[in-house]
Amino acid sequence: MAYLQPNHAIISERPLTEASCRNRCGELERAQLIKWRGNWKNAGHKKGRIRWKRRWVLERARGSLLRCASSSSSSSLRSSVEEIVESGRERKEYIVSEYGWGVRRLIEETSEMRKVAQVQAEAFYVPVFFFKELFFQFFQAEVLSGLLYKLRNSPPDRYACLVAEPTYDASESWHELVGVVDVTTMREEYVVQHLQGATEYLYISGIAVSNNFRRKKVATVLLKACENLSNLWGFEYLALRAYEDDLGARRLYANAGYRVVSGDPPWMTTWIGRKRRVLMIKRSKFV
Questions:
Q1: pLDDT-derived band of residue 59, with 50, 70 and 90 as boundaries?
Q2: pTM of the model
Q3: Does residue 287 carry a pLDDT above 80?
Q4: Which of 17, 135, 153, 238 has the fewest CB within 10 Å, making it most exposed?
Q5: Catalytically annotated residue among 201, 203, 237, 253
Q6: Please, what's the b/e burial string for 141-177 (b: 16 or more CB within 10 A of its CB; e: otherwise)?
């Protein structure tokens, strides 16, 4: 299993925002937000909440465009509204959809981020003898904190958290996340020396599948989504690390086209006492 990536700065550049437009429209949008949030909270069930959320996105799109657009034609205005509304409907634009699972980017909302942290925490937590539940909660909070840090400090084309979910009965099951993987643009010299003609690569970490959905091709679909993402971002190589004695994970990665190129130096396992990991790389066939 690819180990969980530690929390650290990934990239320094951040995308620009439309601050000027938001400053002009801020007060009216905040008033709308308060109104629609109240209606959303008062909805008694999941479908009702989704319906109120969609209506709020529609109103926000219409109001923002009418206030901020200067000389747009009615047709272009209508298409812009429809584009924003569609994005607010949590439309499932899957990077990969196979074996009954669809993989997409994480929706940055509290409930989904907590589910991602739970899936990864359950996969990587090492139980202790005392206070197992308490320490697990601490570990899950640390995973969530790391996810928030990466989302806030990484441009969208340098880091992505991908989630897998069932593709059947999309109206009811979109909240059921069954797998997670982190994809990060990196340039570590130790890895780059194994990549012919490349200075950067996509690093795969934190791949995790819920206990009830293991051995059902979820991890296979997640790995394929990572490769498709490397094609979209224009990277030729993907890399990951696995524990040397985790034969099941290594077999999974080998079947996906990854090959072992090196391992941790002996002093890391002998002196520090950490389990030895192997570095596996794959050259994307799409580039």
A1: very low
A2: 0.67
A3: no
A4: 17
A5: 253
A6: eebbebbeebeebbeeebbbbbbbbbbeeeeeebeeb
